[in-house]
Amino acid sequence: MGPPVDSEPRQLRQLTKAESLQLLTEVSFGRVIFTQNTMPAVRPVNHIIDDVAVIFRTHLGAAVLTTIGMIVTYQADAIDPDSHLGWSVILHGYAHAITDPDTVARYEQLLRPWVRGEMTHVIRIYPEIVTGFELVKDE
Amino acid sequence: MGPPVDSEPRQLRQLTKAESLQLLTEVSFGRVIFTQNTMPAVRPVNHIIDDVAVIFRTHLGAAVLTTIGMIVTYQADAIDPDSHLGWSVILHGYAHAITDPDTVARYEQLLRPWVRGEMTHVIRIYPEIVTGFELVKDE
User: Fold this and answer.
1) Residue B115: C-alpha distances to residues A7, A8, A109, A125 (Å)
2) Between vectors from CA A78 to CA A35 and to CA B47, what angle results, nearest 5°?
3) Which H or E run contains A106?
4) Are B65 and B122 in contact, with CB atoms under 8 Å apart?
5) B84 touches chain A (CB under 8 A)
6) DSSP per-residue codes, B63-84
7) Domain A11-136 in this protein, CATH class
8) What is the nearest CA distance from A33 to chain B, expressed in angstroms?
9) Structure pTM?
10) Which ipTM score applies to this complex?
Protein backbone atom coordinates (compact mmCIF):
# COMPACT_ATOMS: atom_id res chain seq x y z
CA MET A 1 0.00 0.00 0.00
CA GLY A 2 1.16 3.50 -0.79
CA PRO A 3 0.89 6.42 1.61
CA PRO A 4 -2.66 7.40 2.57
CA VAL A 5 -4.23 9.74 0.05
CA ASP A 6 -5.25 13.13 1.37
CA SER A 7 -8.75 13.43 -0.07
CA GLU A 8 -10.23 16.29 1.92
CA PRO A 9 -12.58 18.62 0.04
CA ARG A 10 -10.49 20.87 -2.20
CA GLN A 11 -10.36 24.58 -2.74
CA LEU A 12 -11.85 25.59 -6.05
CA ARG A 13 -9.75 28.12 -7.92
CA GLN A 14 -11.05 29.82 -11.07
CA LEU A 15 -8.72 29.54 -14.02
CA THR A 16 -8.03 32.33 -16.46
CA LYS A 17 -8.98 31.92 -20.10
CA ALA A 18 -5.31 31.46 -21.01
CA GLU A 19 -4.79 28.80 -18.33
CA SER A 20 -7.96 27.00 -19.41
CA LEU A 21 -6.95 26.93 -23.08
CA GLN A 22 -3.49 25.70 -22.16
CA LEU A 23 -4.92 22.82 -20.11
CA LEU A 24 -7.16 21.80 -23.02
CA THR A 25 -4.06 21.20 -25.14
CA GLU A 26 -2.80 18.71 -22.54
CA VAL A 27 -5.64 16.23 -23.05
CA SER A 28 -6.77 14.45 -26.20
CA PHE A 29 -10.36 13.80 -25.32
CA GLY A 30 -13.47 15.74 -24.25
CA ARG A 31 -17.22 15.97 -24.61
CA VAL A 32 -19.41 17.91 -27.03
CA ILE A 33 -22.56 19.11 -25.30
CA PHE A 34 -25.57 20.25 -27.28
CA THR A 35 -29.34 20.23 -27.45
CA GLN A 36 -30.98 17.43 -29.41
CA ASN A 37 -34.78 17.49 -29.75
CA THR A 38 -34.95 19.75 -26.69
CA MET A 39 -32.93 17.21 -24.63
CA PRO A 40 -29.45 17.91 -23.29
CA ALA A 41 -27.08 15.65 -25.22
CA VAL A 42 -23.41 14.77 -24.87
CA ARG A 43 -20.93 12.90 -27.05
CA PRO A 44 -17.37 12.02 -26.05
CA VAL A 45 -14.84 12.69 -28.82
CA ASN A 46 -11.09 12.81 -29.23
CA HIS A 47 -9.77 16.20 -30.25
CA ILE A 48 -6.81 18.28 -31.21
CA ILE A 49 -6.45 21.96 -30.43
CA ASP A 50 -5.41 24.10 -33.39
CA ASP A 51 -4.44 27.57 -32.24
CA VAL A 52 -7.23 27.80 -29.66
CA ALA A 53 -9.99 25.97 -31.56
CA VAL A 54 -11.22 22.47 -30.72
CA ILE A 55 -11.12 20.15 -33.74
CA PHE A 56 -12.85 16.78 -33.84
CA ARG A 57 -14.05 14.33 -36.46
CA THR A 58 -17.41 12.66 -36.76
CA HIS A 59 -19.44 10.53 -39.13
CA LEU A 60 -22.39 10.99 -41.42
CA GLY A 61 -25.62 10.71 -39.47
CA ALA A 62 -24.05 11.65 -36.14
CA ALA A 63 -26.38 13.61 -33.87
CA VAL A 64 -23.64 16.16 -33.35
CA LEU A 65 -23.89 17.19 -37.02
CA THR A 66 -27.27 18.78 -36.26
CA THR A 67 -25.36 21.40 -34.27
CA ILE A 68 -23.46 22.91 -37.19
CA GLY A 69 -23.94 26.66 -37.10
CA MET A 70 -25.21 26.50 -33.52
CA ILE A 71 -23.61 27.23 -30.19
CA VAL A 72 -22.30 24.11 -28.54
CA THR A 73 -20.40 23.50 -25.35
CA TYR A 74 -17.18 21.55 -25.01
CA GLN A 75 -15.88 20.16 -21.75
CA ALA A 76 -12.73 18.35 -20.74
CA ASP A 77 -11.31 17.53 -17.36
CA ALA A 78 -8.58 15.68 -15.57
CA ILE A 79 -9.58 15.09 -11.96
CA ASP A 80 -7.94 12.40 -9.88
CA PRO A 81 -10.64 10.28 -8.20
CA ASP A 82 -8.35 9.53 -5.25
CA SER A 83 -6.73 12.87 -4.46
CA HIS A 84 -9.63 14.99 -5.80
CA LEU A 85 -7.08 17.28 -7.40
CA GLY A 86 -7.34 18.39 -11.01
CA TRP A 87 -9.16 20.71 -13.33
CA SER A 88 -12.18 21.13 -15.60
CA VAL A 89 -12.53 23.45 -18.58
CA ILE A 90 -15.75 24.42 -20.36
CA LEU A 91 -16.03 26.46 -23.52
CA HIS A 92 -18.87 27.68 -25.68
CA GLY A 93 -18.66 28.40 -29.38
CA TYR A 94 -20.24 27.83 -32.77
CA ALA A 95 -19.82 24.41 -34.34
CA HIS A 96 -18.34 24.95 -37.78
CA ALA A 97 -17.94 22.24 -40.43
CA ILE A 98 -14.55 22.43 -42.16
CA THR A 99 -15.05 21.94 -45.90
CA ASP A 100 -11.88 23.27 -47.51
CA PRO A 101 -10.27 20.07 -48.89
CA ASP A 102 -6.69 21.02 -47.94
CA THR A 103 -7.70 21.89 -44.40
CA VAL A 104 -9.75 18.71 -44.10
CA ALA A 105 -6.80 16.68 -45.37
CA ARG A 106 -4.46 18.32 -42.87
CA TYR A 107 -6.76 17.60 -39.95
CA GLU A 108 -7.30 14.04 -41.12
CA GLN A 109 -3.55 13.57 -40.87
CA LEU A 110 -3.26 15.21 -37.46
CA LEU A 111 -6.36 13.77 -35.83
CA ARG A 112 -6.75 9.99 -35.81
CA PRO A 113 -10.17 8.76 -34.63
CA TRP A 114 -10.20 6.49 -31.59
CA VAL A 115 -13.31 4.74 -32.90
CA ARG A 116 -13.42 2.57 -36.00
CA GLY A 117 -15.58 3.82 -38.85
CA GLU A 118 -15.53 6.35 -41.63
CA MET A 119 -15.25 9.83 -40.14
CA THR A 120 -16.57 12.00 -42.94
CA HIS A 121 -16.77 15.34 -41.16
CA VAL A 122 -14.28 17.65 -39.45
CA ILE A 123 -15.82 20.07 -36.97
CA ARG A 124 -14.22 23.12 -35.40
CA ILE A 125 -15.40 24.90 -32.28
CA TYR A 126 -13.85 28.31 -31.85
CA PRO A 127 -14.05 29.22 -28.16
CA GLU A 128 -16.14 32.35 -27.63
CA ILE A 129 -16.53 31.90 -23.89
CA VAL A 130 -14.03 29.91 -21.80
CA THR A 131 -14.24 29.06 -18.12
CA GLY A 132 -12.32 26.65 -15.98
CA PHE A 133 -11.54 25.70 -12.44
CA GLU A 134 -8.82 23.88 -10.63
CA LEU A 135 -9.15 21.83 -7.45
CA VAL A 136 -6.12 22.69 -5.35
CA LYS A 137 -4.70 21.87 -1.93
CA ASP A 138 -4.78 24.43 0.79
CA GLU A 139 -1.54 26.29 1.22
CA MET B 1 10.03 2.95 -21.99
CA GLY B 2 7.26 0.39 -21.73
CA PRO B 3 6.00 -1.70 -24.61
CA PRO B 4 4.40 0.26 -27.45
CA VAL B 5 0.72 0.94 -26.86
CA ASP B 6 -1.63 -0.50 -29.44
CA SER B 7 -3.80 2.53 -30.14
CA GLU B 8 -5.53 1.60 -33.37
CA PRO B 9 -9.12 2.84 -33.76
CA ARG B 10 -11.36 0.68 -31.57
CA GLN B 11 -14.55 -1.20 -32.20
CA LEU B 12 -17.52 0.47 -30.59
CA ARG B 13 -19.79 -1.97 -28.77
CA GLN B 14 -23.17 -0.87 -27.42
CA LEU B 15 -23.67 -1.67 -23.75
CA THR B 16 -26.90 -2.94 -22.30
CA LYS B 17 -28.74 -0.87 -19.72
CA ALA B 18 -27.63 -3.27 -16.98
CA GLU B 19 -23.99 -3.10 -18.08
CA SER B 20 -24.14 0.69 -18.26
CA LEU B 21 -25.62 1.04 -14.78
CA GLN B 22 -23.02 -1.35 -13.38
CA LEU B 23 -20.16 0.68 -14.89
CA LEU B 24 -21.57 3.88 -13.36
CA THR B 25 -21.15 2.37 -9.90
CA GLU B 26 -17.43 1.88 -10.60
CA VAL B 27 -16.66 5.60 -10.87
CA SER B 28 -17.23 8.39 -8.37
CA PHE B 29 -17.44 11.32 -10.70
CA GLY B 30 -19.46 12.44 -13.74
CA ARG B 31 -21.06 15.42 -15.43
CA VAL B 32 -24.55 16.88 -15.17
CA ILE B 33 -25.67 18.23 -18.54
CA PHE B 34 -28.58 20.61 -18.83
CA THR B 35 -29.91 23.65 -20.60
CA GLN B 36 -29.24 27.04 -19.02
CA ASN B 37 -30.74 30.11 -20.70
CA THR B 38 -31.00 28.11 -23.96
CA MET B 39 -27.28 27.24 -23.78
CA PRO B 40 -25.98 23.71 -23.30
CA ALA B 41 -24.37 23.61 -19.86
CA VAL B 42 -22.29 21.05 -18.00
CA ARG B 43 -21.08 20.72 -14.42
CA PRO B 44 -18.70 18.04 -13.15
CA VAL B 45 -19.81 16.52 -9.83
CA ASN B 46 -18.86 13.60 -7.63
CA HIS B 47 -21.65 11.09 -7.17
CA ILE B 48 -22.82 7.95 -5.51
CA ILE B 49 -25.23 5.49 -7.08
CA ASP B 50 -28.09 4.43 -4.82
CA ASP B 51 -29.94 1.49 -6.30
CA VAL B 52 -29.74 2.82 -9.86
CA ALA B 53 -30.17 6.55 -9.17
CA VAL B 54 -27.36 9.09 -9.42
CA ILE B 55 -27.03 11.16 -6.23
CA PHE B 56 -24.96 14.33 -6.02
CA ARG B 57 -24.73 17.36 -3.77
CA THR B 58 -24.66 21.01 -4.73
CA HIS B 59 -24.84 24.44 -3.19
CA LEU B 60 -27.35 27.25 -2.98
CA GLY B 61 -27.22 29.38 -6.12
CA ALA B 62 -25.74 26.63 -8.30
CA ALA B 63 -26.93 26.76 -11.91
CA VAL B 64 -27.78 23.08 -11.71
CA LEU B 65 -30.55 23.87 -9.19
CA THR B 66 -32.53 25.48 -12.01
CA THR B 67 -32.99 21.99 -13.45
CA ILE B 68 -35.04 20.58 -10.58
CA GLY B 69 -38.14 18.96 -12.03
CA MET B 70 -36.62 18.96 -15.50
CA ILE B 71 -34.99 16.29 -17.60
CA VAL B 72 -31.22 16.38 -17.31
CA THR B 73 -28.48 14.22 -18.74
CA TYR B 74 -25.70 12.59 -16.79
CA GLN B 75 -22.51 11.29 -18.32
CA ALA B 76 -19.52 9.42 -16.98
CA ASP B 77 -16.67 7.70 -18.74
CA ALA B 78 -13.38 5.95 -18.24
CA ILE B 79 -11.41 5.96 -21.47
CA ASP B 80 -7.68 5.42 -21.49
CA PRO B 81 -6.02 8.16 -23.57
CA ASP B 82 -3.16 5.83 -24.56
CA SER B 83 -4.89 2.56 -25.39
CA HIS B 84 -8.22 4.17 -26.44
CA LEU B 85 -10.03 1.43 -24.54
CA GLY B 86 -12.82 2.15 -22.10
CA TRP B 87 -16.45 3.09 -21.86
CA SER B 88 -18.93 5.97 -21.69
CA VAL B 89 -22.41 5.93 -20.16
CA ILE B 90 -25.14 8.53 -20.67
CA LEU B 91 -28.47 8.63 -18.87
CA HIS B 92 -31.46 10.93 -18.97
CA GLY B 93 -33.85 11.50 -16.09
CA TYR B 94 -35.64 14.07 -13.99
CA ALA B 95 -33.58 16.03 -11.47
CA HIS B 96 -35.27 15.61 -8.10
CA ALA B 97 -34.33 17.52 -4.94
CA ILE B 98 -34.24 15.26 -1.89
CA THR B 99 -35.92 17.04 1.02
CA ASP B 100 -36.75 14.32 3.54
CA PRO B 101 -34.37 15.13 6.43
CA ASP B 102 -33.47 11.50 7.20
CA THR B 103 -32.69 10.77 3.57
CA VAL B 104 -30.68 13.97 3.25
CA ALA B 105 -28.74 13.07 6.40
CA ARG B 106 -28.02 9.58 5.07
CA TYR B 107 -26.72 10.91 1.75
CA GLU B 108 -24.65 13.57 3.52
CA GLN B 109 -22.90 10.74 5.37
CA LEU B 110 -22.38 8.62 2.26
CA LEU B 111 -21.43 11.35 -0.18
CA ARG B 112 -18.55 13.62 0.74
CA PRO B 113 -18.09 16.62 -1.58
CA TRP B 114 -14.76 16.91 -3.36
CA VAL B 115 -15.04 20.70 -3.35
CA ARG B 116 -14.92 22.87 -0.25
CA GLY B 117 -18.08 24.79 0.59
CA GLU B 118 -21.50 24.28 2.07
CA MET B 119 -23.41 21.79 -0.03
CA THR B 120 -26.99 22.55 0.88
CA HIS B 121 -28.82 20.42 -1.67
CA VAL B 122 -28.98 16.72 -2.49
CA ILE B 123 -30.15 15.92 -6.00
CA ARG B 124 -31.24 12.57 -7.37
CA ILE B 125 -31.47 11.64 -11.04
CA TYR B 126 -33.45 8.48 -11.63
CA PRO B 127 -32.35 7.03 -14.98
CA GLU B 128 -35.28 6.89 -17.41
CA ILE B 129 -33.14 6.29 -20.49
CA VAL B 130 -29.67 4.73 -20.30
CA THR B 131 -27.19 4.21 -23.12
CA GLY B 132 -23.56 3.29 -23.14
CA PHE B 133 -20.75 2.10 -25.30
CA GLU B 134 -17.49 0.33 -24.84
CA LEU B 135 -14.34 0.71 -26.94
CA VAL B 136 -12.96 -2.79 -27.37
CA LYS B 137 -10.11 -4.52 -29.13
CA ASP B 138 -10.80 -6.63 -32.14
CA GLU B 139 -10.92 -10.34 -31.44
Assistant:
1) 10, 8, 40, 29
2) 70
3) helix A101-110
4) no
5) yes
6) GGGGGBTSEEEEEEEEE-TTT-
7) mainly beta
8) 6
9) 0.94
10) 0.93
